[in-house]
Amino acid sequence: MTEIALNPDLDVDALATAFTEKKRLQIKKALRKDDALHIHSVLVNKTPWEFTYCEGETISSIPLVEMENMPPQERMALARRVAQTAQQGFGHAYNTFTFHQEIEKGNYLDHPLKAFDDFMTSEAFLSFARKITGDDTISGAGAAASWFGPGHYLNMHIDSLPEWDLRAAFIFYFCPTWRADWGGELKFFPDKRGSYVEEAFFPAFNALNIMTVPKYHSVGVVAPFAGAPRLAISGWLFAGKVPYKVDNLT
63: which strand partners? Predict the structure, then answer.
C-alpha cells in the first residue's frame, strides 16, 4: 500500500505566519507529487462513488451505478425535488465516498484510500495542522472524498456539529486541469446573508485548503461545460475523542 506524505519542502513556519492573517490558507504542492498523482488515479479509477443530495431536511445517497441506471423520468423528478430544496435554503448535490467513516466501521480496509486515511490521522499530519493553525488541541481528523461534476454544488453553510469539538476544516484538491471559469470554487462569506464573497479558493492540483471553523462558506456550481471532475478529499480536524457519527463531509 502506497504511503502518503507531506511535501518535505514546505516551509511550515512561513505557512503558519500566513495563516494568522485570515485564519485560512491555500497551500500549493502540499503532498509529494507522486503521492498526489496516485490519489488522483485512485479517485478516478478505484472509488465506489455515491450520489449524495438533500431533499427537504433529509440527506440521502444512492450508489452512482444505481443513479445512472435510474429511468430518465425518475431521475428528472429527483433532480427537480433536489433543486427545490436548494432554492429554499441549504442543499447539495455531488458524488461522495465516505471512506474514513467506512474504515472506522471496519470496511474497505484493503482500499487504496486506506493509505490516505492513515496519513490523515497520523501524528505527522496532525502535528502539521497544529503548527499551521496554532491550535495545539487538535487530536484527530475525519474526511470523505468528493467528485463534483457539471451542475453539482454545495450551498452556503457553516461547519457546526454538536457532537464534534471542531477546530478546523481542510480540503485536498486533486484537479490537474481545472480552469477558474469551470466554477467549483470554495467561497467564504462574512455572514449567512452572503452579501459579498470575502475570498475564493479555486480547485487545483495537489493544493490543500485549511481554515478555522465555524465559517460561512459554499462550493460554487460546477459549470455545464467543465472538462474534468472536481476531485477532492475534505474533512475536519477536531479536539478530544469524537463519536463517529457523520452523514456528510464536504
Answer: 50
Q: Which of 44, 239, 233 lies closest to 146 in space, CA to CA?
A: 233
Q: Which residues does 153 contact at the CB level (< 8 Å), separation at least 6?
A: 86, 91, 92, 93, 94, 218, 219, 220, 221, 222
- Which set of grid coordinates corresponds to residue 186? 470554495
| 100 alpha carbon, distance to own chain's centre | 12
Who's near 212: CB < 8 A, 6+ residues apart? Answer: 23, 24, 133, 135, 167, 168, 169
Burial of 168 (0-12, 13-18, 19+ CB in 10 A): buried
The answer to whether 156 and 86 are in contact (CB under 8 A) is: no
- As a whole number of angstroms, the distance between CA 138 and CA 144 comes to 18
Which superfamily, per CATH, for 12-45+103-239?
q2cbj1_9rhob like domain (2.60.120.620)
How far is the C-alpha of 213 from the C-alpha of 157, rounded, in Å?
Answer: 11
Measure CA of the first residue to CA of the last residue in the chain; give whole Å. Answer: 25
**pLDDT tens, per residue, the chain with 250 residues:** 689 999 999 999 999 999 999 999 999 999 999 999 999 999 999 999 999 999 988 899 999 999 989 999 999 999 999 999 999 888 999 999 999 999 999 999 999 999 999 999 999 999 999 999 999 999 999 999 999 999 999 999 887 666 778 999 999 999 999 999 999 999 999 998 888 999 999 999 999 999 999 899 999 999 999 999 999 999 999 998 764 444 444 4
